[in-house]
Amino acid sequence: MNVMKNLCRYVIAAMLVLFAYAAAAMPANPWNLLTAPGSVSATTATILWDKQEDAANGYQLILNGKPLNVTRATNYILTDLQPATTYKLEIGVAGVKAKSPHQFPLYNYRSR
Q1: How far is 61 from 70, CA to CA, in rounded Å?
Q2: Distance of CA 100 to the CA centre of its chain
Q3: Strand, helix or coil at 34?
Q4: Is 60 exceeded by the pLDDT of residue 22?
């Protein structure tokens, strides 16, 4: 009985180590997607992100499931927003299908 308890403890400890390693290996926000400080209003916001090496064709932005313009810049001004509304923004490399959930980061934004 004691051997089984110890074995279970070792198995649980090993699983926790593996989960921690996997979580540390996967960045939470690999694009550093964020709202530019001081840019938020009731109807506009500026979104910033890090340049991606494979973005020769630019970046595709999708707001609430609707594609926006493709841009080569690493920022975009969202306009015509509704006050106190939550928006779902996705961004990806233009012309590339997401191979993983982290390739097209998701950003939930709420206007003022």
Answers
A1: 7
A2: 11
A3: strand
A4: no
Q: Which of 27, 101, 103 is nearest to 60 (CA)?
A: 103
Q: How confident is the model at residue 7 (pLDDT cuts 50, 70, 90)?
A: low
Structure tokens at 16: 């926790």
Q: 13: buried, middle or exposed (CB in 10 Å: 19+, 13-18, 0-12)?
A: exposed
Quote the CA–CA distance of 16 and 22 in Å, as a whole number.
10
pTM to 2 decimal places? 0.64
Sheet bearing 75-78, strands edge to edge:
34-35, 45-48, 75-78
C-alpha 87/C-alpha 62 separation (Å) is 10
- Residue owning tokens 């110890």: 6
The pLDDT assigned to 8 comes to 47
- CA-CA distance, 39 to 41, in Å (whole number)? 7
pLDDT tens for each residue of 43-82: 888 999 999 888 888 999 888 888 888 999 999 999 998 8
